[in-house]
Amino acid sequence: MPIAYIKESNYEYTKLKKDIFEIINNLDNNLIKTGSIVLIKPNLLAPSKIEQAITTHPLIIKIVCEYVLDKGGIAIISESPAMGKFKKNMKDCGVMDAINGMDIKIKDFIESREISVDSSINKIEIAQDVFDADVIINLPKLKTHSQMMLTLAVKNLFGCVIGLKKPEWHFKIGENRTVFAELLFEIYKAIKPKINLIDGILVMEGRGPGTGGTPRRLGILMGCSDALSLDRAVCDMLSVSHDFLLTNKVGKACGYNEEIIINGNMPKINDFKFPPKGDITFGPAFTRSFLRRNLTKRPATLNEKCKLCGECLKICPANAITLGTTEKRLKFDYDKCIRCYCCLEVCPHSAINIDKPWLGRVINKIGSKFIG
Length: 372
Ligand code: SF4
Ligand code: SF4
Hints:
34% of the residues lie in helices and 22% in strands.
């Protein structure tokens, strides 16, 4: 039965080091041996400041590296971020300063290995380094995610799919969040990191996972030898059902539903702010396009904040964003847009919001009056 180890913690070095070492030792004291190649996969989504709570805290990464080196292992930090370049993100997010002087390899994911999977996903390309490592340490950040509601331990592994392959998947899958969850579940099954440690100290709620979210201090570190079980424990802590996270739901349908033992004092948080709920697709096929255009939520620019940096245009897998020639404003083609919210994820200026067309807002209002 998987055990989730919970500790109240903070970013004070001595306390954090004690907590992290204890959690990892509890997970498996003998996993890392002299000469073991240990791949450390943090969340370094985008260049950002520590207080924005977008990326795994640099001290957590540093202390995990210290743990690996203490055991005689070879520590490698790797990631394929959605925005920016990995090594620049390492610098901008404060990781390079934190690990300065330590014997650690910093390695871009470059080559992929194609793996076949049983589901409709069929084939996935995952970074070769993942398969070359003896041990993988998964270091996600606890954050909201506008498309998948939360990004935790399973979703963090999507960063092992290299570069443009990620938006390609978004484009292939389109708006189907369940298929995206199936993809994430298959990636998790292929990688299965033995050490998963989530940074739940300064987390993100609201319109995450990028600059649109709101940092919130929870002061929690959670570790588990199974990423999916860790995600389920986080759902318990945030007072939502396991199925609220679609990767959990997909996992359950595939028989991954073991009971989790909680070791430590897990708080019950009842007021965590999630992104706006997804829309329901309904009605006969010939009305769907109209309903989708006029009812469903969609990305929109806050013109007063937009600096026209072009990051959202670069990431958009559906080529649904263009720059208007006359008024120098972004335009969204909502027929092309697949509602993946990659644009919201990468915007460095919190300039993309989730908007609902006026008809959708009216119907929601009427609905809530009757439903209460
Ligand atoms: S919306 Fe954000 S990412 Fe897109 S151009 Fe404006 S500032 Fe850049
Ligand atoms: S406009 Fe944004 S939400 Fe729509 S497809 Fe492009 S990146 Fe995804």
